[in-house]
Each structure stands twice: as structure tokens, then as C-alpha cells.
Amino acid sequence: MAKHRKKLRGISEKPRGLGAFAPNHPNPSARRHLKPSATSSAKAPSKNLKHPIIPFQTPDTILLIGEGDFSFAASVCAHHGDKFSRIAATGFDSRAETLKKYPQAEKCIKDVEEAGGAVSYSIDATRLGSYKSLTTGTIDGVKRGDWDWIIFNFPHVGELLVGFFKAAAPLLSPRRGSSIVVTLFEGEPYTLWNIRDLARHTGLRVQRSFKFAAEAYPKYSHARTLGNIKGEHAWKGEDRDSRSYIFVRAGEEAESPAKKRKREESSEDEDD
User: Which of 35, 65, 213, 231 could form a disulfide with 52 if both were Cys (CB 3.0 to 4.6 A apart)?
Assistant: First the structure.
């Protein structure tokens, strides 16, 4: 199926009102199947992990939204590169602002690009359809995409999610079960956002949820919106309890046999 999809175009355009994209980006057509970055020195996940859930699998395509220092994208490429065929990682800040706020991002970005992934900047999560590099064309006046997974980890404001769901849903692949994943910290104020209801208003339904295991992504570190913070106000988001919610289009809530088997084999607690 994947070989018939239109390949991701180079990320070079700059929609009106937004910052510049990175001047140097990989040629997505040069490498279809990604490989772990040869430059990564991260260790493998701990053997003590009880089968953490990695939702995507070969030959899926992945679009990452809201990357801060791109350490999640770098870890996915380095340690789970055999589970997908194409990946694009996007961040809200411009390249200059990203490197200013997160100096460690430079290496992460390099690792993603060397692994064959695409990196772009100044991407508004509520206007995803306005970026030609993330879409494949227009159907019935709506921009469409071919992403099997669109993943947004730790959005910092609940109001953002409604616009994100509306923008992301049309970019999902026509394949049944193509999914949007949003990861939030457990507890307030995040539980007050009622994320299930926010998604329902845009025609999406929760298929299931599971504990997010940061340990499954070596060298990943939660990047705070304000940038690197040291001292008494510093904390590690990856150490906090978090939950990932998988959303699918209404009517597609039933899991495929393969996904159900994978979930049953996992010891991570989940809810439906």
C-alpha cells in the first residue's frame, strides 16, 4: 500500500504569517525506508520495561506535531525506525528560535535528517492543511493527506486541541484505522480539558488509551514551551505520569486483529 502513496515533497514553503522553514532539509524521495541514525549513541530501552506500547508499525507514515527540541523525533528514528516507512517532524518555533530555546535541538535535528526524516519549523498545529509539504492534494475543497499516524505530545493549552483536531483529521490516510495520538499529563488541569469530548465534536472517537512510557524513547526529554529551565523551577516532564489517547474517525473504533493482538500481549494498563 505504501508504495502507491505520493511521496512527501521537500519542506521549503513558508505560509503567510509564519516564520521561515529550515534552509536545509532532506530529500524525502531519496530514501523511502528509514534507518536508525548512525550517529546516535543512545542506549536501548531498559529490559525492565513491560512491553511498552509503540503504536505505529511498518509500513506506517508518521507526522509529528509540536516538537520542541526534536528529541522525541530523534529517538523514534534511532530506535523505532523499522516500524514506519516515512516520518516528518514539525515544530511551532522558527529554526532560529528553536536553537535559541533548546541548544540540544541541533543534534536531534541532525539525527532525524540523517535518518531520512523531514524536519520543518513554524508549523501551526491548527493550520496543517495550509502546508503543501504535509498534504497530497485537495478533495471537495478540503486539503487531504496520507498520514497513518499524526502524533501531538503534550500540547500546553486545551483550546489548541479543537483547532488541531479539525486540521489534522483531513490529513489522515484513507486507510481504515489511521489515527491521531495526543499525549497529556495525568491530573489537573489536563483532565479538565475533556479531550474525548473535544475530539468528538470534530468527528473523532477514542479507540483506546494507554500509559505513555518515556523510557521506550531513549534520550527523549520533555521540552518545555519556555525553553530549557534550570534551578528550582526545573522539572522533568518525562518522569510524570502521562497518558496517550488514540483517536480514529467515527465508525472506525473497532481495532484490527493485529492491533488487538498487540494490545493483549502488552502488560501496560489501558482503557477503552
Answer: 213
| pTM recorded for the entire structure | 0.75
- Grid coordinates representing 34 are 528509514
Which residue is listed with cell 536553537?
99
| Whether the Cβ atoms of residue 91 and residue 67 lie closer than 8 Å to each other | yes
Grid cell in block for residue 255: 481495532
The pLDDT tens digits for 89-100 are 999 999 999 999
Who contacts 114 (Cβ-Cβ below 8 Å, separation ≥6)?
37, 38, 39
DSSP tag of 257: H
Grid coordinates of 129: 492543511
For residue 184 the three cell numbers come to 497529556
User: Over the stretch 15-71, which tens digit does the pLDDT of each residue have?
Assistant: 323 222 232 333 333 333 444 443 333 334 344 456 788 988 878 999 999 999 999
d(CA 159, CA 144): 23
Counted residue by residue, the chain has a size of 272
